[in-house]
Design brief:
Distance between the termini: 23 Å
CATH architecture of one domain: 3-Layer(aba) Sandwich
Number of strands: 12
Low-confidence stretches: 7-18
CATH class of one domain: Alpha Beta
Structural class: alpha/beta
Strand order of the largest sheet: 6-7-8-3-9-10-12-11
Order of helices and strands: HEEEHEEHEHHHHHEHEHEEHHHEE
Strand content: 15-25%
Amino acid sequence: MSRLQAARKSLMTDCLSDMRPSPIVEVHELRIRFASDDGAVKAVDGVDLTIHENETVALVGESGCGKSLTALALARLVTGPGLEISGHIRIDGNDILNMSDSALRALRGATLSYIFQDPAASLNPVKRVGDQIAEMIRLHRKVSDVTAEVIRLMGLVGLPQPERRWRDYPHQFSGGMQQRVMIAMALACHPKILVADEPTTALDVTIQAQIFDLLRDLQVQMKMTVLLITHNLGLVARNASRVYVMYAGRVMESGLVEGVLRNPAHPYTKGLLAAVPRLNRAVERMTGIDGTVPHPGRMPSGCRFHPRCTMVSERCRVTEPELEIVEEGHEVRCHYWKPNR
């Protein structure tokens, strides 16, 4: 048994002794592959993810790192040519990869619901927003007055004059109001788990703050578990308790938000943090991470981050690092996370 496995076993024992509830989301060794002319494309490669009830966990990384694919796999919503999904996914005790299609349809929306990043693209432009919310209610709940429930939900998410505006079409709403409609749709079935995939990407910072304040309030009211997907570590610091940092289909670092953001161990995490603008720090030029995320069909040998890393050595180019423990609950995948190593 490796040091990491032993520590995980010890941590699991401690959790049991503390009588903590079982995780509501458990992902182990998740792999997602697509067929291509050049062979199998490994879009997600060995991801582990655990979320407990009423917790907010963030999944962070640049575009193309596999965050959204990982989230979509939770409800088996990933599609594509020659798709292969392996590993283990358990949602509220259900074995997702072995569920029937009818059981999955019942789980989607009622147990696990999604807010996607572009409400204008997600909403049907030729259907009234109230009808779109009502469709979710009719699919998963028995409600005597669906229209009244639609109006209640629209009011719950802060949409003005819901008694009148439920008849309006998506183009009659601003971007922030469209996102509130999407949240109302996601909450229509009282889900236990809410996946918020870049929910404020297209919105200005003022509206972003309003949307996240709303999500926090609704999480408390409805006792929801939240998986937040973002590339913005500032949002993570304000809204999540734990964070997983993904790069090129793998988790590079994970742990409590305070520990990871105050004491980042991976050069990639440090690079993401350095790119966050701060009002209390005067700089002539923002720093970034040189290069781009590799194509999933052309992963570099060794550490996947080594072509962009400022600490790269020959060992990084040849050998992929294993996850190591920084401190209890904080893990990193890097050869040189320790000083003078």
